[in-house]
């Protein structure tokens, strides 16, 4: 007969979960539980002699855990009830002492899976003892559900799948932990994503190795929604997993649904983050005979992709150097589906280092220069002027060294892009900046450009002399120590450098187009007229000579660089007036010269 006091203790124990050990006589506990039906799982637990003996040392948390596992399925299907169970679970593991439970006896796989998913995405528990760690320490392992007479069920969405599909960076470290629980079966979710795919994507080398030892196909071909394992390992820069897959027979030329080979994948990375990792991965793939000439669905080779994405010239150099050593001819002049070669793309994206690499490895300079609407297309109007001018002029110099002749359309595309970014705006007075900004003057006098010329002296040189000096010295020497100037002085200085660098280009083309437009004028007259003109006047001449409207410029400029159409029109009118005045002046000079010659004879 169960005494009232014992019954109250046991019921209170079950309802409140007191945080202390309560040791009850095994027989009394069994009798009490059987009569009140409170812990149904515990009732079955104590029916065996071994469990009956161990019950005397069970803690209250252990018994409460047995109760949680025995909750009816209806409770688990109700969101509020599930949350209560999860909260109780967290409360239990926070104060757990003693023997760890065998969770597989209290919870089926579906419930464990749900608890793990909640823990992976949990943001409220701050105990520092994640439920997932508790499950691992308990020794719980997921087991494949096998029904006699049927095939094993592999189609199942697990906590591993749910965690892997999350975009939250905090979940990253939980994936390897989950694989300590799901360590044998390669489950597949509804989108054909497998545990093997996830292990490759998250760099879990030991898990990948174990799957392969168990006979997993290294390619693990899925439907179109999932990339091959090798692509996933490359995308996340897990070199050890990549090498393991390649050694295990992964095809280095297998394309995904978009036609991207593993080499395309490496070359597609954006930004400068971990450049050395990408270079090592590319080298590894090439050593396993990856084909550098395979094209994706856009007709782009890996070389096209490098030039289109980030312009990592070192990566391009490695690709070209290794293939050169392997006697593999990389098609540097191949066109994509739009007919664009890697060199055209590199020029359009203003990648001077990439242009140099391509030219060194045989890129043809007889290419068609990018059209005006494609040239510098990826840059926004928020870019600084030097970000457009400096690389463009370096590219022009590199192309001309290899024998390229800049044609009129190319010259206009270049000049118009400069105009769009503010080069033709009214020049700032650099002398006034030096006078009014003491810091600028002090830095300029101290900084040398070249062996024996201070920046201050350089800024005092006549335009033609300054152009010659600037051509001989790398741009960085002029900009590296002038980063902390007053905003007005910095803008004026950069504008002056850009004008100095480009004036010769504008002047040559203005003269050429002016002569073509006015073939009856003497060459000497044209040169004298063009020589003293400012950048904005030279651009105006090019626009007038080629019958180009300047109205487009007002439409593309940002508010801080806006030019009114009336200003453009007045500038053209001003240029025409200057031309008339200069014509009269030259005509007088020409007549005087003829008179002098006549008198001598």
Note down, in words, how this protein is organized.
The chain is mainly α and 601 residues long. It has 4 domains: 111 residues, no CATH class; 110 residues, Ankyrin repeat-containing domain (Serine Threonine Protein Phosphatase 5, Tetratricopeptide repeat, Alpha Horseshoe); 114 residues, Serine Threonine Protein Phosphatase 5, Tetratricopeptide repeat (Alpha Horseshoe), CATH 1.25.40.20; 171 residues, no CATH class. Helices cover 58% and strands 0% of the residues. The longest helix is centred in the last third of the chain and has 36 residues. The chain is elongated. InterPro entries: Ank_repeat_dom-contain_49, Ankyrin_rpt, Ankyrin_rpt-contain_sf. Pfam families: Ank_2.
Topology:
Layout: H1 4-16, H2 26-36, H3 40-45, H4 49-55, H5 60-69, H6 73-77, H7 79-94, H8 103-106, H9 109-120, H10 131-137, H11 159-164, H12 174-178, H13 195-201, H14 205-213, H15 229-235, H16 239-247, H17 262-267, H18 275-287, H19 302-309, H20 313-325, H21 342-348, H22 352-360, H23 385-401, H24 408-420, H25 430-436, H26 438-446, H27 455-460, H28 463-472, H29 476-479, H30 487-517, H31 523-530, H32 535-545, H33 551-556, H34 565-600
Helix pairs in contact: 5-7, 13-15, 15-16, 16-18, 18-20, 19-21, 20-22, 21-22, 22-23, 23-30, 28-30, 30-31, 30-32
InterPro entries: Ank_repeat_dom-contain_49, Ankyrin_rpt, Ankyrin_rpt-contain_sf
Keywords: ANK repeat, Repeat
ANK repeats: 225-257, 258-297, 338-363
């Amino acid at each position: 007969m169960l005494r009232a006091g014992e019954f109250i203790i046991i019921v209170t124990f079950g309802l409140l979960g007191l945080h202390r050990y309560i040791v009850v006589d095994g027989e009394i506990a069994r009798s009490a539980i059987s009569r009140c039906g409170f812990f149904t799982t515990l009732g079955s637990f104590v029916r065996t002699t071994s469990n009956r003996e161990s019950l005397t040392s069970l803690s209250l948390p252990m018994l409460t855990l047995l109760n949680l596992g025995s909750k009816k399925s209806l409770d688990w299907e109700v969101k509020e009830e599930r949350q209560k169970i999860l909260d109780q679970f967290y409360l239990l593991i926070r104060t757990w002492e003693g023997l760890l439970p065998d969770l597989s006896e209290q919870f089926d796989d579906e419930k464990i899976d749900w608890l793990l998913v909640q823990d992976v995405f949990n943001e409220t528990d701050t105990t520092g003892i994640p439920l997932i760690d508790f499950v691992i320490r308990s020794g719980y392992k997921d087991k494949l559900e096998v029904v006699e007479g049927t095939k094993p069920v592999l189609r199942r969405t697990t906590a591993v799948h749910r965690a892997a599909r999350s975009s939250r960076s905090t979940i990253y470290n939980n994936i390897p932990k989950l694989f300590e629980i799901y360590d044998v079966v390669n489950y597949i979710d509804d989108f054909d994503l497998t545990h093997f795919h996830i292990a490759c994507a998250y760099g879990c080398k030991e898990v990948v190795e174990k799957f392969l030892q168990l006979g997993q196909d290294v390619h693990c071909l899925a439907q179109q929604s999932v990339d091959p394992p090798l692509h996933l390992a490359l995308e996340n820069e897990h070199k050890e997993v990549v090498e393991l897959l390649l050694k295990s027979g992964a095809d280095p030329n297998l394309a995904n649904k978009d036609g991207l080979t593993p080499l395309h994948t490496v070359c597609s990375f954006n930004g400068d983050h971990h450049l050395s990792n990408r270079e090592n991965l590319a080298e590894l793939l090439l050593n396993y005979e990856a084909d550098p000439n395979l094209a994706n669905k856009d007709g782009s080779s890996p070389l096209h992709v490098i030039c289109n994405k980030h312009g990592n010239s070192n990566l391009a150099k490695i690709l070209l150097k290794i293939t050169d050593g392997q006697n593999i001819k990389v098609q540097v002049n191949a066109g994509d589906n739009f007919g664009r070669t890697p060199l055209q793309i590199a020029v359009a994206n203003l990648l001077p280092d990439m242009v140099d690499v391509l030219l060194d490895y045989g890129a043809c300079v007889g290419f068609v220069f990018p059209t005006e609407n494609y040239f510098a297309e990826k840059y926004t109007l928020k870019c600084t002027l030097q970000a457009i001018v400096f690389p463009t002029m370096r590219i022009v110099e590199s192309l001309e060294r290899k024998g390229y002749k800049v044609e009129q359309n190319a010259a206009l595309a270049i000049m118009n892009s400069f105009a769009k970014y503010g080069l033709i705006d009214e020049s700032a007075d650099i002398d006034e900046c030096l006078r009014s900004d003491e810091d600028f003057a002090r830095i300029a006098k101290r900084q040398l450009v070249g062996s024996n010329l201070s920046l201050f002296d350089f800024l005092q040189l006549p335009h033609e002399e300054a152009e010659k000096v600037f051509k001989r010295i790398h741009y960085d020497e002029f900009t590296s120590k002038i980063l902390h100037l007053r905003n007005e002085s910095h803008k004026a200085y950069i504008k002056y450098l850009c004008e100095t660098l480009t004036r010769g280009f504008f002047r040559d083309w203005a003269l050429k187009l002016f002569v073509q437009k006015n073939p009856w004028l003497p060459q000497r007259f044209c040169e004298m007229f063009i020589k003293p003109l400012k950048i904005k006047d030279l651009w105006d001449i090019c626009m007038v000579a080629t019958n180009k409207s300047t109205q487009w410029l007002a439409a593309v400029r940002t508010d801080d660089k806006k030019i009114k159409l009336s200003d453009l029109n007045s500038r053209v009118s001003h240029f025409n007036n200057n031309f008339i005045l200069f014509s009269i002046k030259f005509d007088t000079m020409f007549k005087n010269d003829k008179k002098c010659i006549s008198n001598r004879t």
